[in-house]
């Protein structure tokens, strides 16, 4: 019988370093999370480098790695050693000219349980991801692991209720969101609270609307590596929410931390029984959702 309860963790880190050092740091923090009882562990988006999408620079493609190379080898060995599931977001080189913002879901025996490629790709000032990433082509997935059935979506995917809904309908018990989001320093005073609040509220809404647990892992720190710019101040505030949007664990804006919370499938079932949103969906009337605009 599948486990009715298991512990998940999100790891919030400063990752403004070279790939080798970021890998060593993440391995250490994953070990710490596992020793604290976590069974499924989430790292932030693009864990192995600084957030290079602040500029459009072809030299940054050198940061990408082919499938099943450095990151997979290291975390596959670690997952098997610790007996945990690890969600590893990385910069994937699929072939010359095609790159993805991706995440391995590595099972507790070290095998690949799944691969997700970021579906929604932003293009905002200092978040120039369309220059680097081809939109994902693997769709929205619920991945069965030895610990539970999980769904992985990445950062900009956070804003789309359709992505959360499809992933939940496929059976995901938890929506994991590896993230790299922050403030433009000059905007923080005027817009920062509302931007951060919207980010949390939309994901808590996904938890409520779908009766799922939600876990978001962000990075922290000011990453200011381009001369003449203010950089991005990553706002941290990683969190885990329950199926009614309740906050089970919340990180600070500026400290490296591990958050751990329990996924309780009996609670999830009870919430869905009392708030039967899936039952009452009018799927016969939703055809227009596949249109770009209704005009």
TrEMBL record:
Keyword Acyltransferase: yes
CDD domains: CPA (cd07573)
SUPFAM superfamilies named among the record's database cross-references: Carbon-nitrogen hydrolase (SSF56317)
Alphabetical list of PROSITE patterns matching this protein: CN_HYDROLASE
A molecular function GO annotation: N-carbamoylputrescine amidase activity
Coiled-coil residue spans: none
Gene Ontology BP term (one): putrescine biosynthetic process from arginine
Gene3D superfamilies the UniProt entry points to: Carbon-nitrogen hydrolase
Residues in CN hydrolase domain copies: 6-265
Keywords: Acyltransferase, Hydrolase, Transferase
Pfam family of the protein (one): CN_hydrolase
InterPro entries membership: Aliph_Amidase/BUP, C-N_Hydrolase, C-N_Hydrolase_sf
PANTHER family: BETA-UREIDOPROPIONASE (PTHR43674:SF2), NITRILASE C965.09-RELATED (PTHR43674)
Record's protein name: Acyltransferase
């Amino acid at each position: 019988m599948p486990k009715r309860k298991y512990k998940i963790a999100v790891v919030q880190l400063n990752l403004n370093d070279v790939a080798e050092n970021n890998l060593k740091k993440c391995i250490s923090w994953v070990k710490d999370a596992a020793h604290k009882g976590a069974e499924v562990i989430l790292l932030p988006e693009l864990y192995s480098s600084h957030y290079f999408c602040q500029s459009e620079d072809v030299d940054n493609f050198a940061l990408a790695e082919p499938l099943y190379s450095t990151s997979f080898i290291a975390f596959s060995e670690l997952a098997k050693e610790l007996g945990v599931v690890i969600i590893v977001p990385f910069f994937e080189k699929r072939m010359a000219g095609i790159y993805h913002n991706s995440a391995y879901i590595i099972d507790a025996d070290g095998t690949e349980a799944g691969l997700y490629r970021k579906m929604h790709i932003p293009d905002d000032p200092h978040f120039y991801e369309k220059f680097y990433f081809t939109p994902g082509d693997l769709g929205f997935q619920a991945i069965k692991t030895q610990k539970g059935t999980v769904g992985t979506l990445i950062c900009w995917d956070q804003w789309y209720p359709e992505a959360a809904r499809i992933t939940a309908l496929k059976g995901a018990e938890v929506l994991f969101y590896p993230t790299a989001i922050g403030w433009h320093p000059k905007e923080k005073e005027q817009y920062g609270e509302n931007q951060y609040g919207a980010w949390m509220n939309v994901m808590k809404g996904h938890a409520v609307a779908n009766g799922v647990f939600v876990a978001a892992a962000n990075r922290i720190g000011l990453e200011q590596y381009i001369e003449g710019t203010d950089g991005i101040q990553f706002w941290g505030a990683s969190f885990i929410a329950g199926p009614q949007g309740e906050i089970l664990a919340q990180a600070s804006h500026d400290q490296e931390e591990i958050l751990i919370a329990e996924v309780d499938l009996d609670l999830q079932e009870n919430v869905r029984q009392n708030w039967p949103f899936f039952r009452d969906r009018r799927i016969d009337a939703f055809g227009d959702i596949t249109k770009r605009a209704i005009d």
